[in-house]
Amino acid sequence: MLTLGFLLVGGTFxxxxxxxxxxxxxxxxxxxxxxxxxxxxxxxxxxRGGPQMRGAALGALMIPVTTAIDHxxxxxxxxxxxxxxTAHG
Length: 89
Fold this sequence. Notes:
The chain is mainly alpha-helical. It has helices spanning 4-16, 20-48, 50-78. Helix 1 runs antiparallel to helix 2 (20-48). The chain is flat and about 75 Å long.
């Protein structure tokens, strides 16, 4: 059950391009342990429950959200602004 998400994503990649199979084989040593750790963490949060674990789960979810926000702000701050003036006549 832990690797169901990994297999579904992998199946989607294979549907779009057969080359995805080679990418999945190369990503398997990195992706499978991360999927297992994520599954174990999620299960421990679900099994313990309680209000104190909700805070821990929310904290774990905030890491990718704040990273995405930081990335969007950095991208918009570094994009140059160009002024283009045209004359007809």
